[in-house]
Amino acid sequence: MEDVFLPIIICSILFIGLPWVILHYITKWKTSGGGITQDDEALLEELYNLAKRLDERMDTVERLVAHDHADFKPARLIADNKADNEELDELEALLARKRAEQKETRA
Asked: Whole-angstrom Cα distance, residue 51 to residue 74?
């Protein structure tokens, strides 16, 4: 009796259960929009600007503390170092390109 049920269970899992799960999540993925919304983009841009301002503030605080205490060695990277800011410059270029595309679509 067990010899009959085991192959039926395995076949039903392989040919019914697995495709059902895959198709279910494909449908969920397609109905979710497939990307980020305008609100998400605005939030990401706001967070990026906030992070950039905080980075500038940390540079200022470290510079002030280093001026007051000669033995202070900042744990962060060198402020406004070109090698450190390459990724930020790339992000700035992408944001500028995105803004230009949005202006063109609105016009």
From this structure: 19
